[in-house]
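Worked problem 6 (solution included).
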Amino acid sequence: MKKYYFKIIICLVFFLVPMKNYAVLANDQQKKVALFSIKDGMLTQALKYMGKYYPDIKVRQKFTETYYGFSVSGSLEELSQIAKMPLVNDFHFVTTYKAHVEESIPFIGADEAENYKDQRGRIITGEGIKVGIIDTGVDYRHPDLKSNYSGGYDTIDQDKDPMETRLEERSTFHGTHVAGVIAANGKRKGVAPKAQIYAYRALGPGGVGTSETVLAAIERAVKDKVDIINLSLGNEVNGPDWPTSIALNKAVEKGVLAITAAGNSGPGLWTVGSPATAAKALSVGASYPPLYFPSIHIKEKEQIITPMIGSSKWARDLEGKIVFKKYGDKSEMKRVRNKFVLLERGKLTFTDKVKNAEAAGAKAVIVFNNVDGDFVGQIKGNTKIPAATVSRKVGLAIQKEIEKGKTIATTGQEKKVDVLADFSSRGPVTGTWQMKPDLVAPGVQIKSTIPGGYLSLQGTSMASPHVAGAAALLKQLHPNWSMDDLKSVLVNTATPLYKNNKTIYHSYEQGAGRLDIDKALETETTLYPTSLSLGVTKKASAPIEKVFTVRVSNKSNKEKQVMTINNQQVNGIKWVLPKPFTIPANTSKSIKLHATVDTKVLKDGFYDGAITISTPDERLRMPYLLLQGEPNFPTVMGFHFGRVKGKGKGSYKYELYLPSKVEEFKIAVFEAETFRLIDVIDQQKNSERGIIKKELVLKNFPKSGIYKFVIFYKRKQYESATESYVNVSKIYVED
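Solution. The predicted structure is:
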């Protein structure tokens, strides 16, 4: 087997800070919880000192990345004493605003499975279905997972013990969390609580692996004859022919339903990465389950606000005039007593902004971003007034209302549900122009199992196992159905989501919609394929004809009347659909769908819609996608560079992926801070699509340090560049 190496990214997003170790204890809820910032490099010493002199304090979490310290629970008196420790920089109390998986599982209809029984008369719980989890391993001793754990393999250490990494600073938890969403069966319940868990540890310490270890895990899972595999991992290569994508397609051909997270690189186009680009795999994006967020009402408009880390709790009934005070400098904090203060991000720290407002008697602080998008702020130390953040768009809108005259603000709580998560990666897939993700599932604030307890996380990593659990329920109900049939009822029964309850999300954003297990369980008609790609069209004098063959299968014991409807009209695309027809029980029928594309009517861009294929009691929605004009996708992906081990000084190697043929590309290296050009290390012309690897001898190249690599390329009418910061001292293939 060829060894393709790349950094695997577990598809997980944190709102707050990355975390390494977790111990969440049930009795902590009765005590105060605080975050302590520790002097650099002194975390272990601080923990030992605290353990010796404050044995009743419970350590909840350790932080070593963007925040250096830990969270603990204890009495107010104990926490105050710890704050005086010489190694402590600062501390503040934790305020929580979140909902958990208790709402996501009933929300997607998993509870309805108890109304169905399999061929042996057992209630549908996933019983007897083998689900492989290719991830960081699983804590199979967790009380909610130990009864379901049935085996697995470790492709990192090459043994039969796929336990999560337990090294102090590089411990993992991700696979255990995924396993709990699928099949927890204890204090918490997963989607399929009696499914058999097979763990394949393909990501080692720190949650990092290679395509080699992932491929080995896929191979092992297929040999173990699992029914379903879940991969909540991925890379940035948006191409259908990366090795892991090819492997997943072959796994499906061998009878394994492959489900994979779309990635967390949204909301831009072309951000779905391998293996979620696999044509036959089921790729999953992330949406919101029912969640409540603090909100602010101004002029009858309600906007969700994001509380800052360390903020006092936002009450639902605050009211007062809102004023704009620029950046929040002390000199600007005039006439703000008992008022909401709107500030712009920048110039001062969040802590200084809030403390200045508090000293001036303000009621609350809202900081809006100085660039596009949302963000999360952090306050150090104890403050008595609440503080939150909003996007630049929302902040400028509030500022505009303030400028019109006196403005009163009130606080409340807003429910957010069936909204696509911004971080969820979007498609389509380069080359095939296939719609990805296939569907979405809850992936925000999902509480599940981790070593030592439970934790709420978010990301497409949390969305994918919802679908894997649903697949286990369906597989138990329909053990003889093909992978295509199972995929169809999951995808084609999904509920389409709408922005602001008005405009439907594009199919390259949400696929067919949000997972609906209840509808999937009651559906006995399936489609193949589950979606249609009309490909890429260019301006032409005559209309372009496209014909698709769709297999409609009646899996029930009675004949069905079937209708096809174009219920999402697109100007410039005309469909000719078959007249109503009948399918006998337990048979399939192939139908033709004819599309005529008038390219003279269409402007360059994406066009999508859906064909509905319905029976008297079922509605199956089949999305379609068309791209008019030359696609403007990133031309260079997955760049990797490093020294070649054992080849002597000056030996380097690079690897990159081209999703299409390019006329020319060249790789230039610059100093990271000054941007001074060091060298153009390679240049190639007329390179074909695919993976490019090349060894170089660079005798005068810097031996170590972080440098900026810029890859310039020319593809048809596009000339552009991508950039990456690389530590050149690293070995190309990491051991």
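Discussion: The two ends are 18 Å apart (CA to CA).
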